[in-house]
């Protein structure tokens, strides 16, 4: 009776050993799921699985060791929630040590660490220990795509659950991640890497002296040049990468000194997609930049935008250029001025007026409407910008209306006047003060009667 009981007690271990041998030596995949199911049911513990794998994990043949670690890792991926804290500690030490093993073993080691990065029972300090070991022992970019993705997943998991511990590493964590990402080419991995960089910035991890390095490791992909292969099972589109990278580049003013010259260079390129991406990225940057970041680049930015609107044959480029100008002006309008500070908005608008105002006097020439659109884009950014622009432009347009007698010329001038009056009306309404609008409205009506004044009135009232 006692012998029978003893045999029953060791039977599960014998069965487990058989499953291990079928997986490791027999190259069968099914036993991994069976072992995981048995662990979940309580038939075996993780310790028993490790003991059954003992000879495989110590085998001198790298492929055999790799299969042994692979089995353990596949079980952990399904059973990590069952682990006790002391088990997690021993498993972390085991896997960290195995990062020094043969390159054939590393993929399975990383899968095991991914499972452990999901453990609720992970003791404090071990997330940092794991990442330090990966940064030190693994040349990530020499790994296959799927294994690089595993490393990104480990980092993502720890950033989600162990943020304060990782922040305790200071800028070393940022530098370690830069080394991990440097040279990444697969779009599946880039989407994850871009999200990690965005989180580093938005969650206020220390960048230390590595701001430029972090910018370079991401900006090297700008502008995105990716065409998904036919029947791509992953469904990654070029636009996904563009938006993800843009979110990174436009996430902090600390990138401004490196990013703005790059955007100017790409706007001035011959590639349509590069122009569009650069103008859209500039637009996004203006939401987080201030006068300090823009100051040194305003003349070049304006020159690039003006050239695109004046010369482009693409309506999309023109529209993005006008949107970028509107955002630049709005950004300059938001900044609070010190008493002794230079008024960048005033000087910026003066440059725009200087380059565009004289074209309004030539209603038959091709630059009259591009100039009007640029001025209206700037005027539409803020009440202050609108007042500055309209006070310079409307008197000129009213004067030009009377200087030109041909109906087509007068119609062009009148349409421009209406555009500026509508902007003035918009800002008067938003600022709850209509005195400026009423002044220009009255001047326009008086100047235009009896010819077109009432048409202007009707258009505004609509």
TrEMBL record:
GO annotations of cellular component type: cytosolic [4Fe-4S] assembly targeting complex; nucleus; spindle
Domain MMS19 N-terminal: 50-311
UniProt lineage: Eukaryota, Metazoa, Chordata, Craniata, Vertebrata
GO terms (BP aspect): DNA repair; iron-sulfur cluster assembly; protein maturation
Origin species: Sus scrofa
Entry keyword annotation includes Lipoprotein: no
Subcellular location(s) per record: Cytoplasm, Cytoskeleton, Spindle; Nucleus
Function (record text): Key component of the cytosolic iron-sulfur protein assembly (CIA) complex, a multiprotein complex that mediates the incorporation of iron-sulfur cluster into apoproteins specifically involved in DNA metabolism and genomic integrity. In the CIA complex, MMS19 acts as an adapter between early-acting CIA components and a subset of cellular target iron-sulfur proteins.
Subunit text: Component of the CIA complex.
Record keywords: Cytoplasm, Cytoskeleton, DNA damage, DNA repair, Nucleus
Name used for this protein in its record: MMS19 nucleotide excision repair protein
InterPro entries: ARM-like, ARM-type_fold, MMS19, MMS19_N
Protein family (similarity comment): Belongs to the MET18/MMS19 family.
Pfam families: MMS19_N
